[in-house]
Amino acid sequence: MSSGTSQIPAARPRRSGSYLYYRHALPVRLMHWINVVALTILLLSGLNIFSAHPALYWGKSSYTGRGPVFQIGAREDDGGNAVGVTHIFGRDFVTTGFLGASTTSDGEVIERTFPAWLTIPDSRWLAMARRWHFFFAWVFVINGLCYVAYSIGSRHLARDLAPDRTDWRSIGRSIVDHLRLKHPVGEAAKRYNVLQKLTYLTVIFLLLPLTILMGMAMSPWLDGLLPGWVDLVGGRQSARTLHFIAAWLIVAFVLIHVVEAIIAGFWNELRSMISGRYRVETEAIDETAR
Amino acid sequence: MKLRARSSRRRFLARGVGAAGAAMLSGCDALSHTEWFPKVLAAGETLNRSAHHLIGRRAMAQEFSTADLSPDFRSNGTSMPNNPAYQALAAASFADYRLEVGGLVQRPARFSLAELRALPSRTQITRHDCVEGWSAIAKWKGARLAALLDSVGVKPEARYVVLHCADPMEEDGTGLYYESIDMDDAMHVQTLLAYELNDRALPIKNGAPIRLRVERQLGYKHAKYVLRLELVESFSRIAGGMGGYWEDQGYEWYAGI
Predict the structure, then answer these.
(1) What is the pTM of this model?
(2) How many domains in chain B?
(3) ipTM of this predicted complex?
(4) Which of B52, B63, B64 lies closest to A221 in CB terms?
């Protein structure tokens, strides 16, 4: 976070008040927002692609003698109305309105895997959804590679993201603080806390690469690159399932990330991700001194 | 007072995010319907193709064991061509079937099923990946396309093999299915004109009497009910000009992803 590390020296009263601290360097901010756009489009176009065959399997193929582990479908009730049904591990749940069947803008309930507002394009259009998906997959991958290169080169990774000894010692307290929705303020807010560091590292170096790799595992051409590599995760259909799960884990991360930002002071956090400048309240030092 | 200000600010923010999201989505939909934007997006697929080709054109598709076979190889798309000429061939168990090979070849020829069976063959258990997302594993036996092409002599200017099929994609019997592959794929060891599926004659629902197997590409490239091969320098004058029935509907010609 403190890749710039330049404070604004003009205002730094000793006892109370606040000053702006340059917390996020321009490349990090830029790549963050490119990621927001790319991941949003990847998710929504991905849901459209999934709608072409809304079922997930475990194994090398979809037809192994075992049924799907997850499926979104629809049936008709006695009145001929569409009923959305979501099947998870052998159990069916009625999910009309969201999954399987949803309401169109005309108020009609139709069979649809996901509601129109959750897919790009809004209609079921596999060819176009694939175009969106693969274009932004490249944006996402190139942006991610630039981020990793920058983070290593600028020491953003070593300085801001890698937990140090103090971090490891504070892990218990950090968990308690998070559960109490208590966030570092003052000087402590200038750096990432340990749970934040571990979460970012996990997402950047495990979750996102896993999602990309499982996406690549679905490519019949890339499967031939090193025949059999896809079996390391159970086969192509397992990879497809993992790609889907990983995508929702990213969504879960984003939700937590945004909620944490709201709790920690939304405008201040948002400004620091736009202009780089974060307002540090100096009077709070004593309360949260490390 | 402060609290109220904050909650109205939050509401404003929530609405703002909602409105921005809706604007983005309708923007994406509007862009999808323009002439130019999908072409920009297609850059992603062009990159896929170049990146994959960098990796190697001769790599083999994964092959499986009999334990991996899918209980039934599902039929997708056409399961019985709505074409009287085809149905007459099928009624006579394809005894009168001839695969025509023409275009940029030294010796245009017609192959009966017996002649195709006499060509060097290959048997392989491979995974069929549909663009929709499902996969099925089956055992295929067929004539190696490379052997057939060698027997007719491909002219040096030929760049693609176009496969003309018997199945009409429109209800009125028009829009015959077709596909095209490049010479690298055509000459690949695993590229077959398949006549057997799981040790039996290829069923009609799966493309009898001959379908293409072009492993490492998605299902729509694996043309069923193949009647004629045409070697061409360019496919831009055939049907919609994009190299295949689904390609003409906006799907990518390169289906390795």
Answers:
(1) 0.91
(2) 2
(3) 0.92
(4) B52
